[in-house]
Amino acid sequence: MFDRYDSPDMEDQPLSTYLRTYRQRTGFTQPEVAFLIGGMDGKVVSRHERGERRPALHTVLKYALVLDVAVVDLYEGLSTEIQAEICTRVRGLVHTLKRKRQTARRDRKLESLNRIIRKSGCDQSLV
User: Would you tell me which CATH number, out of the four given (1.10.1040.10, 3.90.550.10, 1.10.260.40, 1.10.760.10), belongs to the domain 8-74?
Assistant: First the structure.
């Protein structure tokens, strides 16, 4: 991991975005990245790096390509938050489905939820 918040409560909490870290690894300046991505200037890149504004999906995909990094690595903190939210929703849906009668369709849904659980690191005892 790269930089972490200094707060003792959040020492393992990843930053929302690692755009600046990956940009600096390439050696590109903010205006250069803005040029490569197109349609913005260095100030917009700076706002994205500081987390003041979230870029549109197509811009995130451009950042990933230009900085040669996976989107999930660029937005590790946000990804962690989303993962926790999805795990909570998976728990709710598993609970609801388990109360329904067993059918092939219900079982396919539970298997899909199992895949989400395995990939996202949710509590393995859910399904």
Answer: 1.10.260.40
**Tokens linked to 106:** 């219900």
CA distances from 6 to 11, 15, 26, 78 (A): 6, 11, 26, 18
Beta bridge partner(s), residue 14: 4
Report how far residue 109's alpha carbon sits from residue 48's, in angstroms, rounded to the nearest whole number.
Answer: 37
Q: What is the pTM of this model?
A: 0.74
Question: pLDDT-based confidence at 7, cuts 50/70/90?
Answer: very low
Q: Secondary structure of the chain: what % helix, strand, coil (to 5)?
A: 65, 0, 35
- 19-53 pLDDT, tens digit per residue, is 999 999 999 999 999 999 998 899 999 999 998 99
CB of 1 within 8 A of CB of 60? no
* Residue positions counted in the chain: 127
